[in-house]
Specification:
With 162 residues, the chain is α+β, with helices and mostly antiparallel strands. It has six helices and six strands, in the order βαβββαββαααα. It has a two-stranded parallel ribbon with strand order 1-2. The protein has a two-stranded antiparallel sheet with strand order 3-4. A two-stranded antiparallel sheet has the order 5-6. It is extended. The mean pLDDT is 87.
Length: 162
């Protein structure tokens, strides 16, 4: 039997891998390369012994056991090593023309949460922190209780409902 698979993203590649020993698989891809959203960017960094170039994968960033069990099984079957990662987030937005509007955020520790010391006395910032904590508590409870339907809602609908 011959099978055509259209698209070489993770789903197409996984399907081709699963079927390869059972049928004659042909993989079709409209892009310039197989791999879908995969993308590797070369970044050259200075070191004491001279510049070193590293490949940084930007197309696939994270997965977890709860929502990607089949992908994890595929990685294990292919003997691809995985490592736990830190899922922290930070952002810095600066405007040289308006330094008062500069914004910086990181939730790693209190020093990073209050990177802008003026926020210690900003009621709006404290309300935002309260909302973040409430959101985290609610979504953690929903995830723990298996309320996947609510967690899959569009963000706007979820916020209106809660």
């Amino acid at each position: 039997m011959k099978v055509a698979i259209v698209g070489s993203g993770i789903s197409g590649l996984a399907a081709a891998h699963a079927l390869k020993s059972k049928v004659d698989v042909t993989l079709f891809e409209s892009g310039d390369y197989f791999g879908g959203h995969t993308n590797t960017v070369d970044v050259t960094l200075p070191t004491p012994t001279g510049p070193v170039t590293h490949g940084v994968d930007t197309g696939f960033l994270v997965f977890n056991e709860r929502t990607y069990p089949h992908f994890i099984s595929l990685m294990a079957e292919l003997k691809v090593a995985t490592v736990k990662s830190d899922m922290s987030f930070s952002v810095q937005a600066t405007d040289p023309a308006s330094p008062a509007s500069n914004m910086e955020w990181s939730g790693t520790n209190l020093d990073s949460v209050f990177a802008q010391k003026r926020n210690l006395f900003n009621p709006r910032f404290w309300r935002m922190l309260r909302d973040l904590l409430r959101f985290n508590k609610l979504t953690t409870r929903l995830a723990t209780n298996g309320n996947d339907d609510e967690l899959a809602m569009p963000l706007g609908d979820f916020l209106r409902a809660h």
